[in-house]
Design a protein that fits this description.
- The complex is a heterotrimer of chains A (484), B (232) and C (154).
- With 484 residues, chain A is an all-alpha fold.
- Chain A contains 21 helices and 2 strands.
- Chain A has a domain of 211 residues.
- Chain A has a two-stranded antiparallel sheet with strand order 1-2.
- The longest helix of chain A has 32 residues.
- Chain A is globular, with a radius of gyration of 21 Å.
- With 232 residues, chain B is mostly helical.
- Chain B has one domain.
- In chain B, 70% of the residues lie in helices and 0% in strands.
- Chain B contains 8 helices and no strands.
- In chain B, helix 3 packs across helix 4, helix 6 packs parallel to helix 8 and helix 7 packs antiparallel against helix 8.
- By secondary structure, chain C is an all-alpha fold.
- The N and C termini of chain C lie far apart (60 Å).
- The longest helix of chain C is centred in the middle third of the chain and has 32 residues.
- Chain C is built from 4 helices and no strands.
- The chains are: A mainly alpha (484), B mainly alpha (232), C mainly alpha (154).
């Protein structure tokens, strides 16, 4: 073990340390607490970037407490983990909470969200993943209610009840895995899975884990909280939850699929869930009557796409999942920035292009990308997904057809809004955007355009990350060098 | 969505879940779980950590990182509850004092509860119990007087101070090993003799930090709910 | 292992697993059968207890001692200590989540004046159109619904 691997723990414990200290620092002024929080998030971006450049195809592994796997807990830092550590921190930086929505307590919760999310993607232990999942979950329940909006409390409580029930399912799933395999280390479970988890017990455990983690990953049928919470939470919280946190749960499902559950039945189960999620999400988005709910349901559909991508075998599927997830992480928060100002029924948006041309233009750009019009990044993400699906053939071809049909629905409801924005205003005009209101979305728009220019190198980098994430053999060999 | 359809659907789901769990649990070998990792830990823990209580060796040694997460979850919940309740009406209901028996008992119990809590925290590596259990008892020591005389509120600022320093101490103890080139949370200090109070290296220090943090967090959390809860 | 111990293990196993399932079932029933949020939370607590019982039961083995070394004797058979450690963690997590739920419950009651899940659901499903015309005119962020005293104090 090199001393470099020991720093794997830093993206988790530094924000944690900061969160513990923040209430004390706030005695010297809220501004100082805010500054410390932002500094720590920036440090996490740097740590994620360092990890990305330090690990090539060989992931960094550290056995916490010096207790070797599978007895102790290991952290496994490959490029996939590094990527999401950085993306989470960037999301938290752009959408750092406003002082009026909870103040220092909201900063603390955001730091905890960053710490928990980093732990979620770095941990190589099933129960440890559950613990970090709970940190992320509890922090998001609190943030969801931080707007002071009347609907916030009810939405957060219903979210909490569903989430806690999901966590209980995860725990039963972990119990089943432990009862069958006698270990919690992911690599060790991977080693024993073909022998111990191939039967009904394994399938049931997978079902329970997917249902539990699916609450955060917005999978059908445990996603009923999504429109309520996204409508009631502060825009910045919605942006982080929809943009990044949902993908972290997907990373967990990805690890489970790659390492433990290769059973065809498990794969078809996830595929069915994904297809229902896509269809239900897009149709609900089509029927939604305001922008915020439209984007909430569209977010569900996009995560269905990620889940569908995960079922496609080998590197192609994981590459598609990462591509769709990253693209969505850029586009959807920007959409929510626009929706935060343009509330109310869609009919009220008429005249928007005249009042706020920048927002309207950005909306068109984002819509084109999410639908998948070349040369925007969304096109490449969908292309990789569809290409992988058609190559795999069989049921995947049907899934690809569903994706194409869903894209048509998506285009219909997004262009309906675009047409509305360009209509002349009738009655009250939509809200005007101050530059500071729109700046996070503009920043994301710039990122989107830059990504368009550098699609080829980004694609190569992501392929590398996907290839190493798909390599279960190397995961087991890195974590359990002596036990192969 | 509401009405009979929902109830029937839920009951059907419930029945399905029960049947599934029954079938699953029936298939599990009770009393003969593989115990792969468990057996190895049982045989290695005394030598590797010096703790006589093997559950403690796991909680603070082998799975110490889980425990850090666990402490964090209480902290997250307390912070979130504070955020949610900070705008609430400050309990308009007249707060009835606890009466003579509760008041007298609270005063009497306070020193005993503190001592018992401290004892359980400090012996966590030897006997059943530890930072969480002892911390909960400590919290009770500070919470019972609050029930007895609701008008004298808990000093949240002190609680936050203890909480912050205890949490920081846990992480600093963990990070200390990083400086010697070891992994996060690697135990240090001498292991001592198995079964002695001063044994198991840095594990009792961790439990002390946990005990203080859990105690101040739970007391603060419950006090907050009492402070606003009078109203509803 | 004696035949008696095996028999005990079998009955105990049925009782513990059965009890866990029963607790989970009662908990979920309590969550769905009535429309009261307090009952939902109590049901949730029952479900969590059931799950914890299941977890701790996994580690059982017949004729084994508690995993604490007494008097330096290390070669007695012990039950699996790992599930016990997991359950401790799970219990604490459950406490944290329930405490937060209680805090939210207080605010829900204060804000809507009811704990009926149907009323709360109705409020949440209400179209923003009911509350405000077109886009908000003044306050950024939350024009659609009336904003109660926001939790901005620290």
């Amino acid at each position: 073990m090199t001393s470099g691997a020991n720093t794997l723990v830093l993206p988790i414990v530094l924000p944690l340390l900061g969160a513990f200290l923040l209430p004390l620092v706030a005695r010297f002024g809220d501004g100082l607490a805010r500054a410390l929080g932002i500094v720590l998030v920036v440090v996490n971006i740097f740590l994620g970037w360092t990890l990305w450049s330090a690990v090539g195809t060989e992931a960094a592994v550290t056995a916490l407490g010096g207790f070797e796997a599978p007895l102790g807990i290991v952290l496994y830092g490959d490029r996939l983990a590094a990527l999401f550590v950085a993306v989470l921190a960037v999301g938290a930086l752009i959408f750092w909470p406003r002082a009026e929505h909870g103040g220092v307590k909201a900063y603390t919760l955001t730091l905890l969200l960053v710490a928990g999310g980093s732990g979620l993607v770095l941990s190589g232990d099933l129960f440890n993943i559950f613990v970090f999942y709970e940190i992320v979950a509890v922090a998001s329940y609190g943030l969801a209610a931080s707007s002071g909006d009347k609907a916030g409390f009810g939405a957060a409580l219903r979210y909490l009840v569903l989430g806690a029930l999901g966590s209980s399912l995860v725990l039963i799933g972990i119990g089943l895995v432990y009862a069958a395999a006698g270990t919690l280390n992911l690599a060790d479970i991977a080693r024993l899975a073909p022998e111990k988890l191939s039967g009904t017990t394994g399938l049931a455990a997978f079902l329970l884990l997917v249902l539990g983690f699916g609450v955060k990953a917005e999978l059908f049928p445990v996603n009923t909280w999504v429109p309520e919470v996204y409508a009631a939470a502060p825009m910045r919280v919605t942006a982080i939850l929809a943009g990044v946190v949902s993908k972290l749960a997907m990373v967990v499902i990805l690890r489970l699929l790659v390492l433990v559950f290769h059973d065809p039945a498990a794969i078809s189960l996830l595929m069915a869930v994904a297809i229902v999620t896509i269809v239900a999400g897009e149709f609900a988005a089509y029927r939604a009557s305001d922008l915020n709910r439209t984007f909430a349901y569209s977010s569900i559909a996009q995560l269905g796409l990620v889940a569908l991508a995960l079922t496609i075998p080998a590197t192609a599927g994981i590459l598609a999942a990462i591509a769709v997830a990253l693209h969505h992480a850029v586009v959807k928060p920007a959409f929510f920035v626009i929706a935060a100002k343009w509330r109310g029924p869609l009919a009220g948006l008429a005249g928007g292009a005249r009042v706020a041309p920048a927002a309207a233009g950005l909306f068109v750009l984002l819509a084109l990308s999410i639908i998948g019009i070349p040369p925007l990044p969304g096109f490449w993400a969908k292309l990789v997904l569809l290409g992988g699906a058609f190559d795999a053939g069989g049921a995947y071809a049907f899934a690809a057809a569903v994706v194409l049909a869903a894209t048509v629905v998506e285009a219909a409801y997004l262009f309906r809004v675009v047409a509305r924005i360009w209509q002349p205003a009738a009655g009250a005009k939509p809200a005007h955007f101050a530059f500071s209101d729109l700046s996070p979305a503009l920043l994301l728009g710039v990122i989107l355009i830059v990504a368009t220019l550098f699609v080829a190198p980004i694609g190569t980098a992501l392929s590398g990350a996907a290839a190493s994430a798909a390599d279960a053999g190397s995961y087991v060999a890195r974590v359990l060098p002596g036990r192969m | 969505m509401h009405g009979y359809g929902r109830t029937t659907a839920s009951l059907l789901f419930l029945a399905g879940l029960v049947v599934m769990l029954y079938a699953l649990f029936q298939a599990l070998p009770f009393g003969a779980a593989p115990m792969q990792v468990g057996q190895e830990i049982v045989s290695r823990a005394p030598g590797e950590t010096g703790a006589a209580n093997i559950v403690t060796a796991i909680l603070l040694g082998y799975r110490g990182f889980d425990t850090l997460g666990e402490v964090t979850i209480l902290f997250v919940a307390a912070t979130a509850a504070g955020l949610i309740l900070s705008g609430a009406g400050a309990g308009d209901l007249p707060k009835a004092p606890g009466g003579f028996i509760l008041k007298a008992a609270a005063d009497l119990l306070f020193p005993f509860l503190v001592v018992l809590g401290a004892y359980i925290i400090l012996h966590g590596h030897l006997t059943p119990g530890g930072g969480f259990q002892g911390g909960a008892i400590m919290a009770a020591a500070f919470f019972i007087p609050l029930l007895a005389s609701p008008t004298s509120p808990l000093n949240h600022s002190t609680a936050a101070l203890v909480e912050g320093f205890a949490g920081t101490a846990f992480i600093v103890i963990g990070l200390a090993s990083l400086m010697w080139g070891e992994a996060f949370l690697t135990p240090f200090l001498g292991k001592g003799t198995l079964g002695d109070l001063f044994s198991a290296g840095s594990l009792p220090l961790l439990y002390l930090a946990i005990g203080l943090k859990v105690g101040s967090e739970l007391a603060g959390l419950m006090a907050r709910i009492v402070e606003v809860g009078g109203k509803s | 292992m004696s035949p008696d111990a095996l028999l005990v293990a079998e009955y105990l196993g049925r009782a513990l697993y059965g009890g866990a399932i029963l607790l989970i079932a009662i908990g979920i029933y309590a969550m769905v059968a009535r429309y009261n949020l307090m009952r939902v939370l109590l049901g949730l607590a029952l479900v969590e207890s059931g799950v914890n019982l299941f977890l701790v039961a996994i580690g059982f083995r017949p004729e084994a001692a508690a995993p604490i070394i007494v008097g330096g004797v290390t070669d007695v058979p012990m039950v699996d200590p790992l599930p016990q450690a997991l359950v401790l963690t799970a219990i604490v997590i459950g406490v944290g989540v329930l405490a937060l739920a209680a805090a939210l419950l207080i605010r829900v009651k204060e804000t809507y004046g009811t704990l009926d899940t149907r009323e709360v659901a109705k409020f949440l499903a209400a179209e923003p159109a009911d509350a405000a015309p077109a886009a908000g005119t003044a306050v950024a962020g939350t024009p659609a619904r009336e904003t109660v005293n926001a939790g901005s104090a620290s």
